[in-house]
Structure formats: C-alpha cells, structure tokens
Amino acid sequence: ETGETYLLDTTDPAIRQSFFTQANTRKLEREKLFKSMNIDFVDIYTHQSYVEPLIRFFRMRAKRFH
Q1: Is this model's pTM higher than 0.85 or not?
Q2: Contact, 54 vs 44, CB < 8 A?
Q3: Cα–Cα distance between 21 and 27 in angstroms, integer?
Q4: Which range marks the domain in which residue 63 is found?
Q5: How far apart are CA 39 and CA 32, in angstroms?
C-alpha cells in the first residue's frame, strides 16, 4: 500500500519458510478471533476445488441451526 517495490528471492528456503510461518500465524490468529466471536468460517485453497469445503460448511450450519 506504500507503493514500494521489493525483490524477493523465492528460491531461498529460509525465505519460503519465513513466509509460510508468518502466513500460518496470521491464519491461526484469524481463526482464534473468529471462534472467540462465534463467527463460522471455511478454509478454501486455490489448489483445490472449493465445492466440497462449501458443501460441508453449509451442511454443518444446517445441522446446527435446524
């Protein structure tokens, strides 16, 4: 958002591990926040179909609210 440009060597295993660790930490913090506020969420990934996770999510909600 600052307009700065960065060059990131994604072939460096340490950089990839750092990126993964930071992303995972943010995900876990977000999940903890959602759970503390009783907000339902569903994990959807770009390398998988979103259909099955959404079906499971809405079936789970239907069971809980009916």
Answers
A1: no
A2: yes
A3: 10
A4: 41-66
A5: 10
The residue written with tokens 């600052």 in the block is: 2
- Dump the DSSP string for 48-61: S-SHHHHHHHHHHH
- Read off the amino acid at residue 17: Q
Q: Is the pLDDT of residue 24 over 90?
A: yes
Task: Give the C-alpha separation, 53 to 47, whole Å.
Answer: 13
Number of domains in the chain: 1
Q: Which amino acid is at 66?
A: H
Is residue 25 one of the residues assigned to a domain? no
Is 31 inside a domain boundary?
no
- Asked whether residue 14 is domain-assigned, the answer is no
Residue 36, classed as helix, strand or coil, is: helix
| CB of 42 closer than 8 Å to CB of 60 | no
Structure tokens at 60: 């789970």
**Residue 1: its pLDDT value, please?**
78
